[in-house]
Structures are given as structure tokens and as C-alpha cells.
């Protein structure tokens, strides 16, 4: 670890602090940045511009109050929300999503998601796999797979960024784990210590160069003393480490203040306040996700609010759904206006659905039997509804879609052949990304 001292400054407590630049961990699983770059170089950098933005709604959003309104069901199941028309004839969604209704032609609404394990965390929505029977090292998330298979598009930005903030129920804030692919393919997490590491804090280029010379001298000494020769070739990766830290590209992408005010207003601001044991309602993260993808990141994960509404389901829906409606519709429109929507897949879902019957507290409880998802972009055939539930929203009546089918679709649109690609687990055993003999890409979309 290399620390570079910056200028002194005073905090509100009156004490003096000195800013520090640390070249090393960059919030990437504790692995030094040169080592991370070396691992990525072994895979090779691809110019493939495909990417994915994964939006996780922690807690289990109510499917029958969003994309699968049950207008013919009894009041104790139908609830308080009505259906509205979209810009696609014949497709209706919940009234809390008027802006999504106007971009429905760019969306696919899956009303028959099945296969949920019932676990109260993000794991299945980030990997497609169950957390219960994992290979040695664990299943990798989709962002880690893209990091391994394609590497970074740009040396100045990581392949995988996790924007999910820390939540009091920690499994909801999981940005995606690298599993058996190792820490070299863990997500960069800007809310961690890595954010301060990216800032030079007034250090001049000459001053940085002086310290770089010291580091190079130390490396030369270490190589001289290294009889095994393992230090050979590290100079190039150290150079890239300095390149990331001295480049403004990643830091600029994370800075939404650079966006015009009208763009920020379109997405909305949200709030950083935590919601019970869940996360904040950071609408800015949807805009940051677009900026990161535009800068060269391949996968961005984020979570929004807390959807575990055992009580006050409709009160919470009136608070959170319009916010999601605003930010998500802005993201889809923004990607299209920038010519990125055909390359970037957007996936929005939670770990399971909610009970059809409203409980005595005006809430809905856990319901793993069926849930819903929204897909957009990625070159998919959108403007359609896939699957259906029965009149009461209890189970998939038509065209059940498994979590792994969604991942099979995403991987296909990302240019990955699920029938051929295998990645080795920690015992060296090749593993397919999903059970490709059972679960195939969604035929209606590809």
C-alpha cells in the first residue's frame, strides 16, 4: 500500500487532518490494484460495448400492485391501485407508473417469475442461482462474470461497479460477489473506502512523480531480492494503477453534479435516509449507473429502498412507486437518446412476490410462488407482456419464467454462449453459468 499525503485541512471538530491517497485496495475486496489489473489482463480486454444495469428492489415488491394488476379480483386481493393503459395497445400496468406506461414499448413485463428460493437477499437476482447448493467458492454474480470474460473496456475504469449502499439487513445491500472467480472480479464500491482513494487532494503531478520514483526504486530492490522472479512484469500493472488514480474518468462518471440540472430533475434526487432495515431511496444512482456505463463500465448493480411491506402496503406504494417510476423511465429514455439502449440491458426485480390476500395490517407478506420482473433494452424484443398469473395472482398460470431463464437471456444479449462457456470453481471443476440444459433464453425476447 502506498500512501500519499495531501494538504492539511480543518474539520468541524477543530482538529487538523491530512488527506491521504492510498494506492492499493480501491475497495476491491482488499486486493491491490496492480494485482487486480494483472488478473484482468490475463483475461484480455474486449471492445464489446454490451452491458447490464441490475436494479434490485430489496424485500420483495408486490407484483399485483405493479405490473400485474388484478382488476377482476375481490377487493381484499385487488387492493387500492387501478390499472392504466400504456403506449402499447392491450398492455396495462399499475397506476403508480404513468411514466413507465409511456415507455412500455421499450419494456418487457414478466408476470410469471418462478423459482424463487424464498431467501431474503439479493443473491438469486445477481447470480440466477440458488444460494443453498453452491460450488466451492460460491456462484459468481453477473458483474463478476463479465469482468472475468471480457475484462475492462477502459484501463481507467473497472468492469464491474456496485452502487448498492449498505443496508441494515446486509444481504439486501449485496452488490454482487465474485464467488469462485476470486477477488480480482469483485465489484468496485464507490461508497466504500475506494472513493477517498481516487482523489489526489491537491497533490501535484511532480509530487506524485517523486513518490512514484520511490515506489519504483523499492520495486527494483524487491525484484533484485526475489530469486523466484515473480516480481517480473509488475511495472506495467503499477503504471496502470497510477493511471486509474491520476485519470479523472471514473471520478467524473461518479459525479452527477456534472449533469445539466434538467437531466438531474428528470431522474429526481431521492434521499439518502435509510428505510428501516433496508436502503435509501437514491434516485441519483440511476443517473450514476448511466454515467458509469457510458464511461466504459460493463455492469452496474444498485438497490432501491425497501419493499418488505408487511403493513401499510399502499401507503408505502404511493411513496416509493412514483420515485421508481420517475428514475427508471428517465434511465430508459436517457439510454435511448444516447444510442445506448440496444447495447445495455436493464433488469428490475426483487427476490420474490407478495401474498395475494391483504393482511389485517394492510400489508402483503412473503410469496415465493410467483413474482414479476421488468426488462428493457439490450436489443430484446420489448413492448410485450410475458406470462400470466391466475385471477388472484397466486401462481403462474401461463408461461412460467425461471430466474435462470432471465440470466440466460441477459448472457445471450451480452454475447456470452451459455452452452459453451465454462468457468472453473476453486477445485478446478468447470462450471456452466446456469443449468443450460433446462433453462434457455426467453424465446419471446431474443
UniProtKB/TrEMBL annotation:
InterPro entries in alphabetical order: Alkaline_phosphatase_core_sf, DUF1501
Hey, what's the signal peptide range on this chain? none
The protein's name in its UniProt record: DUF1501 domain-containing protein
Which species expresses this protein natively? Rubinisphaera italica
